[in-house]
């Protein structure tokens, strides 16, 4: 305990040191970020300062250059219009007026003046011409000297320079001499200007004779000089005026220096000293054109640039993030041991869950087997009982018991399907099947129920839906059976309408429907003049897409389709995949609004009274939803209470260009006869949706149908044939819907039509009444040639027409797809049945003997192994899976081992005989199991079985198993 405590203390101490180091790293990183952001802020401030300083220096230089250029232009003007002009074109008044008006072109100069070059020998004549005497800068008489530079023209702003000899000042004299030797503008040292007391400089520019060449030498320049132009710069005022026009001037301080003497820089503009606390300073050199003088502009911020908030908030936020990350890491680290322990526990729980899943599968297998085993006996014995001579009462009791047993088996199958779906073990088959025949078969399952309720039950398949598709017909049928069964169960009046079309056509049709018709909400539906709705039965439906207004969009009456009456699509350029949209519409009680969100929940009913009033477990819809999703589709519904419901599901299948009936092992569909192709008939029906459905079934037989709204119009259509002879190949028929038959008036019209056919009864039209109730057969049987009870199917219509018209049907070979073909398969076959349940043995033996097989029964796997020791004379073996001592799997493995050993011995013997042919010994073994989950099927195949037959098995299932495995076997296996 002490060692464990010390180890924990050391671990905590080590974690503390790591945490402290982590905090120090976080602080260091935050500090680095702070200095980095602060440095970036100073860099940006410096870039901004450089930009503003350079901009101001550039503007000052540009303005100075403009001023010098205009002074140069003024010198050329004087040289042109004043030199050696008698009289001169320029006088003081003209000069003052001109320079005053053009002062805006020289923004940096306070004023300009012109001093003429006068030699000493010319002084007296010059003074007499001007009428005044030259003075010095101190207003004294100019002393004698070699030459003079008296000001003769001046701008009004510098009029005080008039008559002053500019050569009398030492600095001015030096500027004059430098200006005429260089030919450029020169500047003086800064000095205080008279009047403003501001710092300023004087600009001096030499004026030459017009004939001076551009490449003149210094001597030539001196000799050609005629005078000097000068101007005073008030640097402080001019720079201030210039900078005040720039944005951001208040942010920075600008200084202009004369740095000709680097050790003693002279301030031309700005405060005399800079604030040392402001770290940023930028110097821009100024070039005013004087090669002997240097100037520069120094800029700094007026105040120290503030520290940006990002330099504070970002490091602080980073530090907080580091701390949060550290806290998360620390928390995760501290819980590592607990998580490791949890992982260990999870592994244990996973192992337990896998064991529970295996136990669940075993439980389902056991329960299925234990329930199906006695049910196999019950149903088998009932089937045998029904094969004996019974009274009508006894037969009714036996049939009722058989029906209840099958309902129980259906319930067990549903529960097992749900379990397989949850386990992900449900797999779909891919076989070709005739979609229209399948739809007819599903409808026929509920025909008696619909006739009892007198409701319309109909199916319609669009022409562009392929005839044969590739998919799982049994699972497709299961969805349809669930949905149609529910529709018939919950509908007491009106209709149940099943419609199949391509999904893309259904979407186009759905786009035409007003979106306001939602579940539980009222929507306006198209109705006829008498108040009935344009639906199949005239009752209002929840979904508008089966109303005639939208249903007619799916119809195609092109003549080209008459050559393809079964809906075969020959356009093989389309995609192999086809998505079907199947809707099941009813006019029943609908689904309450509060229950619509749990419709697809397993074992849930719409309300508590549903199971009592209608029966059912509430599992069918959930299975249908899962199956539709496995088929690549989905399922949805529209329901309005007391109006009805419409369930729609989609399924993605493949086109099949192979006839479904060609696969004798898989299909039970019969081909429709073609003896009625080309016949014509009149249909009397005022409901366009229902008439379209009837036409669909008649067109499948090749009958051309014309629709009339009432009996009178239909009979007139027959009268319009002008007495044409009606041959046997083209009989004329009249189909009348019962609710559009008016006995008080239509009987007379019908009799009159029959009398008009030359008194020949055979020439009169054959009249067929379509009814929804068996009771109507007796009511109208004497009036019509035949009364056909709906729902309509192409095969039943063909049978009725053949009986009505006495059409000779071409002889067809016995349909080998029928279970009755089992007799030819099993006659004389020796079959071994292995089952530990004596009742099941009797049932299986009776079913096989029924078709002529010779059956031998044993009750254990060991006995089966003994009997099947090669050589034996059995053609097949039906093996129960769960048996004591040796189950069916182990028995099959031993049988396969014996066969393999026998085959090897025979192969070695026959190898020594020339010309001998070796035939491998392989006995078909089928598992008889009440356990139909996927795991059992996989175990059957793994143990060497060829397939399985689930208990209780029926005639069709038995045929499919036997036809695949027993056909082609010899009478004996050696």
Automatic annotation (TrEMBL):
A GO BP annotation: cytokinin-activated signaling pathway
Entry keywords, A to Z: Cytokinin signaling pathway, Kinase, Membrane, Phosphoprotein, Transferase, Transmembrane, Transmembrane helix, Two-component regulatory system
Localization: Endomembrane system
Protein name: histidine kinase
Top class in the EC scheme: transferase
Reaction equations catalysed: ATP + protein L-histidine = ADP + protein N-phospho-L-histidine
Its membrane topology: Multi-pass membrane protein
Lineage: Eukaryota, Viridiplantae, Streptophyta, Embryophyta, Tracheophyta
Single GO molecular function: phosphorelay sensor kinase activity
Species, as recorded: Urochloa decumbens
Ranges where the Response regulatory domain occurs: 680-805, 830-966
Gene3D superfamilies reported for this sequence: 1.10.287.130, 3.40.50.2300, 6.10.250.1190, CHASE domain (3.30.450.350), Histidine kinase-like ATPase, C-terminal domain (3.30.565.10)
Keyword Zinc among record annotations: no
Main location: membrane
Subunit text: Homodimer.
A Pfam cross-reference name: Receiver_CRE1
InterPro entries in UniProt: 2C_system_His_kinase, CHASE_dom, CHASE_sf, CheY-like_superfamily, HATPase_C_sf, HATPase_dom, His_kinase_dom, HisK_dim/P_dom
Lineage: superkingdom: Eukaryota
PROSITE patterns listed in its UniProt record: CHASE, HIS_KIN, PROKAR_LIPOPROTEIN, RESPONSE_REGULATORY
EC number(s) per entry: 2.7.13.3
């Amino acid at each position: 305990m002490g060692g464990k405590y010390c180890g924990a203390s050391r671990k905590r101490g080590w974690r503390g040191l790591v945490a402290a180091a982590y905090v120090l790293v976080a602080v260091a990183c935050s500090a680095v970020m702070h200095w980095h952001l602060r440095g970036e802020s100073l860099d940006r401030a410096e870039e901004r300062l450089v930009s503003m300083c350079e901009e101001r220096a550039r503007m000052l230089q540009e303005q100075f250059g403009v001023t010098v250029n205009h002074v140069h232009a003024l010198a050329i003007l004087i040289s042109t219009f004043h030199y050696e002009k008698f009289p001169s074109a320029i006088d003081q008044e003209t000069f003052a007026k001109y320079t005053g008006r053009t002062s805006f072109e020289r923004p940096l100069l306070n004023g300009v003046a012109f001093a003429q070059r006068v030699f000493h020998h010319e002084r007296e004549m010059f003074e007499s011409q001007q009428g005044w005497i030259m003075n010095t800068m101190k207003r004294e008489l100019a002393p004698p000297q070699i030459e003079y530079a008296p000001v003769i023209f001046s701008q009004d702003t510098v009029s005080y320079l008039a008559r002053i000899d500019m050569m009398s000042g030492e600095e001015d004299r030096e500027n004059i001499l430098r200006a005429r030797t260089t030919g450029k503008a020169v500047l003086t040292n800064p000095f205080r200007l008279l009047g403003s007391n501001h710092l300023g400089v004087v600009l001096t520019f030499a004026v030459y004779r017009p004939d001076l060449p551009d490449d003149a030498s210094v001597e030539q320049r001196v000799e050609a000089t005629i005078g000097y132009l000068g101007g005073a710069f008030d640097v402080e005022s001019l720079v201030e005026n210039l900078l005040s026009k720039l944005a951001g001037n208040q942010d920075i301080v600008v200084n202009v220096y004369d740095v000709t003497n680097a050790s003693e820089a002279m301030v031309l503009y700005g405060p005399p000293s800079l604030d040392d606390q402001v770290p940023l300073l930028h110097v821009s050199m100024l070039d005013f054109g004087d090669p002997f003088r240097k100037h520069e502009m120094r800029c700094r911020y007026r105040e120290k640039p503030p520290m940006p908030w990002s330099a504070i908030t970002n490091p602080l936020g980073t530090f907080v993030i580091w701390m949060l990350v550290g806290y998360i890491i620390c928390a995760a680290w501290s819980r590592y041991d607990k998580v490791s322990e949890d992982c260990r526990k999870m592994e244990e729980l996973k192992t337990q869950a896998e064991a529970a899943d295996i136990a669940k599968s075993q439980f389902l297998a056991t329960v299925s087997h234990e329930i199906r085993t006695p049910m196999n006996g019950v149903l088998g014995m009932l089937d045998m009982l029904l094969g004996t001579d019974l009274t009508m009462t006894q037969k009714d009791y036996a049939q009722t018991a058989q029906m209840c047993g099958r309902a129980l088996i259906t319930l067990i199958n549903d529960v097992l399907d749900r379990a397989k779906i949850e386990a992900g073990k449900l797999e779909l088959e891919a076989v070709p099947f005739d979609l229209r025949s399948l739809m007819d078969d599903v409808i026929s399952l509920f025909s008696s129920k619909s006739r009892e309720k007198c409701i319309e039950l109909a199916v319609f398949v669009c022409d562009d839906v392929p005839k044969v598709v590739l998919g799982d017909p049994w699972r497709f049928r299961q969805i349809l059976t669930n949905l149609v069964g529910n529709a018939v169960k919950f509908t007491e009046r009106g209709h149940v309408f099943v419609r199949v079309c391509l999904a893309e056509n259904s979407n186009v049709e759905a786009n035409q429907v007003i979106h306001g018709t939602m579940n539980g909400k009222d929507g306006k539906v198209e109705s006829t003049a008498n108040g009935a709705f344009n639906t199949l039965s005239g009752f209002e439906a929840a979904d508008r897409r089966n109303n005639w207004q939208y249903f007619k969009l799916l119809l195609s009456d092109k003549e080209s389709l008459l050559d393809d009456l079964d809906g075969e699509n020959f356009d093989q350029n389309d995609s192999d995949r086809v998505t079907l949209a199947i809707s099941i519409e009813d006019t029943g009680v609908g689904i309450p609004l509060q229950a619509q969100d749990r419709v697809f929940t397993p074992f849930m009913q719409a309300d508590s009274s549903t199971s009592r009033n209608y029966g059912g477990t509430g599992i069918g819809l959930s299975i249908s939803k899962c199956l539709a999703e496995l088929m690549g589709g989905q399922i949805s519904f529209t329901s309005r209470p007391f109006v009805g419901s419409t369930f729609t599901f989609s399924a993605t299948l493949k086109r099949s260009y192979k006839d479904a009936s060609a696969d004798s092992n898989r299909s039970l569909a019969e081909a429709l006869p073609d003896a009625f192709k080309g016949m014509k008939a009149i249909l009397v029906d005022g409901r366009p949706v229902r008439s379209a459905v009837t036409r669909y079934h008649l067109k499948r037989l090749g009958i051309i149908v014309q629709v009339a709204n009432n009996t009178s119009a239909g009979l007139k259509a027959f009268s319009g044939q002008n007495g044409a002879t009606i041959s046997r190949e083209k009989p004329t028929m009249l189909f009348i819907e019962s609710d559009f038959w008016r006995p008080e008036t239509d009987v007379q019209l019908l009799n009159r039509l029959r009398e008009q056919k030359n008194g020949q009864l055979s020439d009169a039209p054959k009249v067929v009444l379509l009814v929804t109730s068996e009771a109507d057969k007796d009511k109208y049987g004497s009036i019509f040639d035949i009364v056909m009870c709906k729902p309509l199917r192409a095969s039943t219509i063909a049978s009725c027409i053949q009986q009505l018209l006495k059409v000779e049907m071409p002889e067809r070979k016995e349909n080998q797809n029928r279970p009755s073909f089992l007799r030819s398969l099993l006659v004389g076959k020796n079959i071994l049945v292995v089952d530990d349940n004596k009742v099941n043995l009797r049932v299986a033996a009776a079913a096989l003997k029924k078709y002529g097989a010779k059956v031998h029964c044993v009750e254990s796997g060991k006995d089966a192994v003994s009997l099947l020791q090669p050589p034996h004379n059995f053609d097949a073996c039906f093996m129960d899976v769960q048996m004591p001592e040796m189950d069916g799997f182990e028995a099959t493995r031993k049988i396969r081992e014996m066969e393999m050993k026998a085959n090897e011995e025979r192969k070695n013997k026959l190898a020594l005989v020339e010309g001998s042919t070796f035939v491998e010994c392989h006995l078909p073994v089928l598992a008889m199991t009440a356990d139909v989950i996927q795991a059992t099927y996989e175990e059957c195949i793994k143990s060497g079985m060829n397939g399985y037959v689930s208990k209780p098995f029926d005639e069709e299932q038995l045929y499919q198993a036997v036809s695949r495995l027993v056909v082609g076997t010899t009478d004996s296996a050696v």
